[in-house]
Structures are given as C-alpha cells and as structure tokens.
Hints:
This protein is an alpha/beta fold. The chain folds into three domains: about 5-35; about 65-270, P-loop containing nucleotide triphosphate hydrolases (Rossmann fold, 3-Layer(aba) Sandwich), CATH 3.40.50.300; about 275-445, Ribosomal Protein S5, domain 2 (2-Layer Sandwich), CATH 3.30.230. The protein is about 25% helix and about 25% strand. It has eleven helices and 21 strands. The strands form four sheets. The protein has a nine-stranded mixed β-sheet with strand order 6-5-7-8-4-9-10-11-12, with helices on both faces. Strands 15-16-14-13-17-20-21 form a seven-stranded mixed β-sheet. Strands 2-1-3 form a three-stranded antiparallel β-sheet, with no helix packed on it. Strand 11 and strand 12 (about 265-270) form a beta hairpin. The longest helix has 18 residues, at about 185-200. It is globular. Bound molecules: thymidine-5'-diphosphate and magnesium ion. Thymidine-5'-diphosphate (TYD) binds near residues 92 and 264.
Amino acid sequence: MAAPKVVFFCRECGGEHPKWSGQCQHCGAWNTLDEAPAPVRGARRAATVRAAPVKLDQIDTADLPRLPTGSAELDRVLGGGLVPGSVVLIGGDPGIGKSTLLLQALHHLARTRPALYVTGEESLQQVAMRAERLDRRDGDLDLLAENNVERLLEAAAAGAPAVLVADSVQTLYSESVSSAPGSVTQVRDCAAQLVAHAKTNRCVVILVGHVTKEGNLAGPRVLEHMVDTVLYFEGDRSSRFRLVRAVKNRFGAVNEIGVFAMTDRGVRDVNNPSAIFLSRGGEPAPGSVAFATWEGTRPLLVEVQALVDSSSLANPRRLGLGIDQNRLGMLLAVLHRHAGYGLGDQDVFVNLVGGVRVTEPGVDLAVLLAVLSSLADRALPDDMVLFGEVGLSGELRPVQGALERLKEAQKLGFKRAIVPAANRTGTRALALEVNAVERLPEALAILGF
Ligand code: TYD
Ligand code: MG
C-alpha cells in the first residue's frame, strides 16, 4: 500500500509545498512549514444531480434580506446588516473589543431569532460577567464553551441558530485533522466546516480571527478567500475610538468603516466621527491641517499633524503613522523638486490623529502642507480643508467623492478648501470657497508659501 501523501503548509500564508524546507517559497517566512495530509483534489462529487445553467435574466435579484445587528455602524460596515448564509471574518489585536462588539450584536439578534455564541477562549462565567458589565444578561442568547468543531456543529444542528459566532477560529480543532489547534490545517479545516454549515443552513457564521504582530490575520491567508466578508478592527488601544473596516465584502462597499467608542459599558456607535477626529480646540497650531477623506461610502474629516525638526542623523528620520511610509519619502522628494523646499537635514514625523489609517493617495496634499506648516512654524487657517493626490511631476490629481468630502467639511463649519482642478465640477453650489488648482506650487501660493 502506498504511504498516504503528505504536503507542507506555511503557517503564515498557507502556501503549499511538496517537500519540507526551512523557508516558505511563497512568503519567505522561516520555520513556518507544518506537515499535513495532502488535500483531495478534483471531483469527488456524486454525479447524480446534473448541473444546469440558468439564464442570467431569470435569476431572482430581489434585495437580499439583511439582519440588523442593533448597531448602525456595524450594519454600515457590513453593507446594511448581516446576510443569511454569509460568513464574516473579524480580526483585530487582542483586547481591542471583538468579543464585546459581537456579544452586543448577538444579544440584540437573539431577541428575534435563535443565536449561538461559541467561545473557545473564555469560560461561560467570563462571558456572563462581560454580559453583566454590558447590562445584557437578559434575553435568549445561547452560549457554548467548546473547542471541538464537530461538537460545535452538532449543537448548531440541534439549536438551528440564525446567527453563530465562533470566538475564535484559532481555538477550534477538528478530529479529522491531527495537527494542533491554531495550525494552518486546523484553522482551514474548521473554517471550511463552518462555511459549509453557513451555506447549507442559511445561517450567518461570524468567525473571530487573531492577528499577528504585523497586523495580518494569523494562520492562512486562505481564510480570507473562504469567507464573504473580512472586517478588521483598527485604531490604537490607548485611544477610546475603534474603527472597523471592511477589507473585503461580497455584500457591500470595500473600505467602508464603522466608528465606535469603547466605554466602560461596552462599545457604542459614534454617529458623528468627523467631529471627533477633528477635535482641534484652541488656537490653530503649526503643523496641523484638516483633511477630508472618503472611506467606502462615507466622508470623514481627519487632522493631519506633522513635525519637522533638524536632525542629528546622517539619514534623517521619516516616520508616518496612519499613512504609507514609502509615499511620505516620495512626497518629500516632490516638495524638494517642484517647490524648492529641501528637508534633507530634517527629521519628518507625520501622524493622523485618533489612530485613523488612510490608504488613499488623496491625503498627499494635506501631508505636504502639514509638513510645510511645521517647517515654517506657521499655522494654516483653521477653517481650511484639503485633499488631493500629488503626482511625481507636481501635478494635483483628482480623488473620488470630492463633492461628498466638501459637503462634510461644510457641515462641520469649514469655509475654504484647496482641491485638485479636476475635482472642480459641482463645487459652485457649495457655500465653501473652493480653490481648484492644477499644480502643487499653486496650492502653496494660496497659503503664502
Ligand atoms: P474584548 O472584547 O475582550 O477584546 P477582544 O475580544 O478583541 O480580545 O475587549 C476587552 C477590552 O475592552 C478590555 O481591555 C476591557 C475593555 N472593555 C471596556 O472598556 N468596556 C467594556 O464594557 C468591556 C466589556 C470591555
Ligand atoms: Mg475576545
């Protein structure tokens, strides 16, 4: 008899290798390969039911029914609530509030339909104590402390929940796999069983996932491919505010964010996030500008801060928190070449206030002006809002959702804006004074640089 085939999976990225090696060929991580039985490939499906194609125009596209979670912000990130039969993966640093948010949501859902919260990390008492703290001990929520995925699914089959939370997927194990809980093969197998359960029973399955110190989901990347929606908790734990971002969503806008505040009695929705991230009391300070961003389907105003200081290092420091580090270096080069401000002997630090992270290049103009304002030690007008991508030849490139950004700024009392020329359309109707500019030097000239 031939020996059973084994392959090796990388614990970090899930990459498959026919042979063991010290380094993963896919992601380059060292010592991350685990042995596992080779997955069965190809069709093992019974050929009794013939697959029949359906005409595109005959598919019912009536709006997907959504289950509201009781939190408008969470519903917003999900694209309007939970979709029956969908699988949501929610990741974030330990202690950021995943279990709290989900317990609250499930408590709400349990009022109208069966809901099951499975905890593999905490005891039932710990969960009950948290519920006590949240003032949510009442109601019909079913709890289960279980690590075995087969027994979990038995309980789910018996209780037929409409929503099931598995907190966390790394603590589950399946009897059919021999490796330890948390290993790639275990996580994959358990997730696959839960996904199958979701699809066959039209049950919403929410998986909680741990993240590594780099901020990626621990375990296989494949987890992200298996689920419909991936949400990440962002924001630093020292701040009260938490951002939940949809990095993948088959049922809603990607990059959508929900804003929450962690209080002593649970996670609360923040209905007016711009007002919070922009709380700039007092005199306008050098190095600070207001930036309007567009995340998913929502405009958001954030304060960009910069500090420029003479450096004693041969390679001055460039540090960007909440923005792309490489882009910061590029922007400083543009500032030098196209506006004549050299920062070769200066340390440059840039920070987005409130732990917000912006991935769009629309932040460029705000970063550059914050840097210049700090360099010149001159405060910019505090009723001015900025956005725009800066190209390598110093041109300002248009951004998405410019009108929405400007409207949000207007709502918050801003009087002036500098935007890329190509975003001028439709801005006449606004009460805001909009300066639409083609190139970076023009924008600087408006501010007297
Ligand atoms: P938790 O939901 O357990 O985090 P995770 O599941 O992501 O690891 O949140 C734990 C943190 O939140 C912990 O530091 C205590 C704090 N917390 C509050 O501030 N208020 C509350 O009402 C609760 C329940 C927790
Ligand atoms: Mg937890």
